[in-house]
């Protein structure tokens, strides 16, 4: 079961990837899919393209699955491949004349330190959204629509068929609950959460 692999140590997971193949691969896929999608989406402003990049990253991982000796090297491989694929999409878009601030994104992706920072941020955000899944349904819906889909209060109220006041109430309660859940977490995770909610 996938849950069992989540309980494995990193070295056990690497061994599973090499020896068992599919089971270890599925566990790694579930561990890193959301982080990679978030990481790529910071540069590639197209959900379908970002999802295609993630799929391609894992295809490459499968073809190289026997090459990894530690989770650190595997993790670095995933983000490097994601970075290179994102650059390719940016350059392709530029060649097609798509008007986006592509040069700024390309410059950031070329800077390994910025990529490393975004990698860490993506993984912190993933840790936060693991806590979001523990929220009551309505709070979770409002939180995701606000901070993931970037919808307005009016749009959320219309979509969920609730009043704007109820949107504000559920959002406030969700933020308060997440802060409580993050209480024992490290300072970086809390900082990432505050950065996320400060954007709205």
UniProtKB/TrEMBL annotation:
Keywords: Sigma factor, Transcription, Transcription regulation. NCBIfam families: Sig70_bacteroi1 (TIGR02985), sigma70-ECF (TIGR02937). InterPro entries: RNA_pol_sigma-70-like, RNA_pol_sigma-70_dom, RNA_pol_sigma70_bacteroid, RNA_pol_sigma70_r2, RNA_pol_sigma70_r4_t2, RNA_pol_sigma_r2, RNA_pol_sigma_r3/r4-like, WH-like_DNA-bd_sf. The lineage of its organism: Bacteria, Pseudomonadati, Bacteroidota, Sphingobacteriia, Sphingobacteriales. The keyword Transcription applies. GO terms for molecular function: DNA binding; sigma factor activity. It comes from the Bacteria. Residues 131-175 form the RNA polymerase sigma factor 70 region 4 type domain. This is Sigma-24. Belongs to the sigma-70 factor family. ECF subfamily. Gene3D superfamilies: 1.10.1740.10, Winged helix-like DNA-binding domain superfamily/Winged helix DNA-binding domain. GO terms for biological process: DNA-templated transcription initiation. Signal peptide: none annotated. Pfam families: Sigma70_r2, Sigma70_r4_2. Residues 28-95 form the RNA polymerase sigma-70 region domain. The gene is rpoE_6.
């Amino acid at each position: 079961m996938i849950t069992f692999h989540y309980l494995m140590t990193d070295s056990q997971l690497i061994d599973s990837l090499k020896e068992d193949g599919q089971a270890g691969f599925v566990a790694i896929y579930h561990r890193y899919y959301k982080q990679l999608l978030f990481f790529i989406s910071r540069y590639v402003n197209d959900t379908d393209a970002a999802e295609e990049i993630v799929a391609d990253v894992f295809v490459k991982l499968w073809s190289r699955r026997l090459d990894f000796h530690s989770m650190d090297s595997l993790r670095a491989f995933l983000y490097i491949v994601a970075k290179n694929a994102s650059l390719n999409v940016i350059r392709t878009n530029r060649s097609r004349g798509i008007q986006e601030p592509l040069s700024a994104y390309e410059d950031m992706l070329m800077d390994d330190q910025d990529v490393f920072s975004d990698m860490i941020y993506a993984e912190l955000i993933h840790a936060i959204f693991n806590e979001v899944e523990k929220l009551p349904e309505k709070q979770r819906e409002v939180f995701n629509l606000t901070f993931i889909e970037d919808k307005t209060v009016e749009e959320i109220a219309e979509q969920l068929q609730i009043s704007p006041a109820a949107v504000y109430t559920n959002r406030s309660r969700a933020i308060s609950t997440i802060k409580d859940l993050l209480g024992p977490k490290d300072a970086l995770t809390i900082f990432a959460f505050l950065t996320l909610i400060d954007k709205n």
